[in-house]
Each structure stands twice: as structure tokens, then as C-alpha cells.
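Whiteboard transcription, Tuesday session. T.W. wrote the C-alpha cells on the left side:
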């Protein structure tokens, strides 16, 4: 009898862990992720990313640094990016398109004169992503 309870307890624990892993995997695949890469020689004083139903602002992103933005859009739409460099130069662009539960994976590369969107919706193609503009 004790062995049966021990086996059932073990099965319950394994089932709980499996459900938790599936929930985590679903959250990872359905949420969006944007990496902001500073490829300028100066600090980004402020970088604002306006997504459908959400706005996130980062400050003091040093040269060659990266920041991660995880989000869950409320509806379909483009996102708007505004970057202010330490020299006072401002870069503004409308980039990308996000859809709820699609798991968008984008990278914004900030260079001295432009913001470039690199899109990689398929992790198996990592390293093969190409600029969209």
C-alpha cells in the first residue's frame, strides 16, 4: 500500500512539473521579444518603443550594449521607435508589425544614422536573419 502511494505521489509530481513546463513554453512562444542593440559610439539617452497597447522606455544604453523587451500586444499593429542619442541626435521610425499570441522575435539595431529592424520569427534560422530595411 505504501509503495502504491509513493508511486502515485511520484506520478503527481511529474505531472505537475510537465504542466508547469508546458505553461512556460506557451508563455515564451506567445509573448513577443525585441532586442535593442546599440551599435553607435555614444550612449543612447532614451529609447522608447510604442507597441499596440503598451509603451516601454529604456534609458542609458551604452555603446555596444543590448536591452531586452518582452511584451504581450493587446492587438495587431506596427510599433513606433524613438531614440535620443547623447549628442542630442534623434532617430524616429515606424518599424515592425506585432500580432497577439504570434511570438514575434525582432531585433532593433541602432546605428548613428538609422534604426534597422532585423526580424527572426523562426529560432531555427538564428544567424540567418536579414535586415528588412
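and on the right, the sequence the group agreed on:
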Amino acid at each position: 500500500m505504501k509503495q502504491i502511494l509513493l508511486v502515485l505521489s511520484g506520478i503527481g509530481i511529474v505531472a505537475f512539473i510537465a504542466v508547469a513546463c508546458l505553461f512556460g513554453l506557451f508563455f515564451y512562444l506567445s509573448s513577443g521579444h525585441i532586442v535593442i542593440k546599440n551599435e553607435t559610439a555614444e550612449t543612447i539617452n532614451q529609447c522608447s518603443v510604442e507597441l499596440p497597447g503598451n509603451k516601454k522606455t529604456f534609458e542609458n544604453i551604452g555603446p555596444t550594449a543590448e536591452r531586452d523587451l518582452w511584451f504581450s500586444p493587446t492587438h495587431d499593429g506596427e510599433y513606433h521607435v524613438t531614440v535620443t542619442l547623447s549628442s542630442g541626435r534623434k532617430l524616429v521610425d515606424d518599424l515592425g508589425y506585432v500580432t497577439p499570441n504570434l511570438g514575434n522575435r525582432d531585433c532593433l539595431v541602432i546605428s548613428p544614422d538609422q534604426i534597422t529592424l532585423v526580424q527572426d520569427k523562426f529560432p531555427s534560422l538564428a544567424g540567418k536573419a536579414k535586415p528588412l530595411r
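Someone added at the bottom: DSSP finds one helix and eight strands in the chain.
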